Amino acid sequence: MTRLIEVLPGTVGREMPSRTFRLKHQLAGHSLFKLERLAKLAASLPAESTEFNGPVAPGQDPKLTPSNGLSAEETVRRIEECQSWMVIKNVEQDPEYKALLDACLDQVADQTGGVMGGARRRQAFIFVTSPNNVTPFHMDPEYNFLLQIRGSKRMSLFDHKDRRFVSEEDLEMYPGKHRNLPYRESFEAKATQQHLEPGDSIFVPLFDPHWVQNGPEVSVSFSITWHTDTSENLVKLSYVNAGLRKLGFPQRPAGTSKALDAIKVAAYDVARPLYDVVKKFVGDRRKAVALFFGRTAVAN
Ligand SMILES: [Fe+2]
């Protein structure tokens, strides 16, 4: 059987790696990534499943992100000239994309001897970007393989444990926080740069900040993400530590104390369903956050 995605020998050991590595894939030219099909996909999904904007910079202020004045479907159809960045989120809502996501992750799991941990909470995203556009500096709270389908891009990646590039506070997450992180041009000399052409793929480690410069053509990328027990616990700790910081008790990073981490994860598991009930009851995320963390939480 032809593999859709191939892990290169020697790139993955007994544990999920903490550094980026390269893979190859066979999805360039796949019919699910033609612009016509992507325009239909964008039109078929709920509005909250698409996000798009005009030209931005690596250190983009989220409050000043420009609109492109188009619908999601129009953005795909006019991507060649509309100078836009677009993500179609949770494309696994469509059964054809779900099947492709599952096939790719299952194939990687088969080649990596258990390090994918069952590859739970699978999600997929498709990035459609105009020539020369930029994805601002941010991090993602999941393991990710980015598959370049069409066009080229360069991703600049940084170690999330290196405090020269991102603070502990900026890594912590809370509901409603914008994903963009502060970026300075001086970072670039220390970046791990991954150049992607159709057929190339890279692993993007959990939490590692990155920004993307697209090449001189339309770019289409397929992002397939998943979680293991480890990543789920690290995300929970990130939320708990952010909440404690909001309450005036900044925390040391996850991994400093296994016992304390376990208590925090247990606390998250108790508090999260309560938060969801409160959010449903008050009908508003900002009010729910305020009830949990006090007024300062919603001022950020
Ligand atoms: Fe990302």
What does this protein look like?
The protein is of the alpha+beta class and 300 residues long. The protein is globular and about 50 Å long. The chain contains seven helices and twelve strands. The protein folds into two domains: 17-227, Jelly Rolls (Sandwich), CATH 2.60.120; 231-298, no CATH class. It has helices at 35-44, 72-77, 95-111, 168-171, 229-246, 258-282, 285-293, and strands at 5-7, 22-25, 50-53, 85-88, 120-129, 134-138, 143-150, 153-157, 192-196, 200-204, 210-214, 219-227. Bound molecules: fe (ii) ion. The site of fe (ii) ion has 3 residues, from loops. Fe (ii) ion binds at residues 138, 140, 210. Residues 51-70 are annotated as: Disordered. This is Transcriptional regulator. Residues 83-243 form the JmjC domain.
Give every kind of bound small molecule, once each.
Answer: fe (ii) ion
- CATH homologous superfamily assignment of the largest domain: Cupin
CATH class of the largest domain: Mainly Beta
Q: What is the overall shape?
A: globular
InterPro entries: Cupin_8, JmjC_dom
Protein name: Transcriptional regulator
Domain JmjC: 83-243
Pfam families: Cupin_8
SSE order and pairing:
Blueprint: E1 5-7, E2 22-25, H1 35-44, E3 50-53, H2 72-77, E4 85-88, H3 95-111, E5 120-129, E6 134-138, E7 143-150, E8 153-157, H4 168-171, E9 192-196, E10 200-204, E11 210-214, E12 219-227, H5 229-246, H6 258-282, H7 285-293
Helix pairs in contact: 5-6, 6-7
The chain binds fe (ii) ion.
